[in-house]
Design brief:
InterPro entries: NifT, NifT/FixU_barrel-like_dom_sf. By secondary structure, the protein is mainly beta. It contains no helices and six strands.
Length: about 70
Amino acid sequence: MANIMIRKGAEGYVFYMPKRDIEDVIVSFEFDSSDKWGGTIRLKNGGQYYIEPQPAPERLPISVRARRIDGVE
């Protein structure tokens, strides 16, 4: 599991992993409502990560722990 940061950008949500200096646009969230946010997230480059579902953050950026689902980076 790695620490990642999610923020709002011009294209929508942006995923950033400082450890590997990976930054990409988030294409979709498994859950994206005020009471349940997170789950599987898909990146524009095809990568998929999983963050534990939680209530939607009140503000961004937010740091969370994520697990890579596939080998694309």
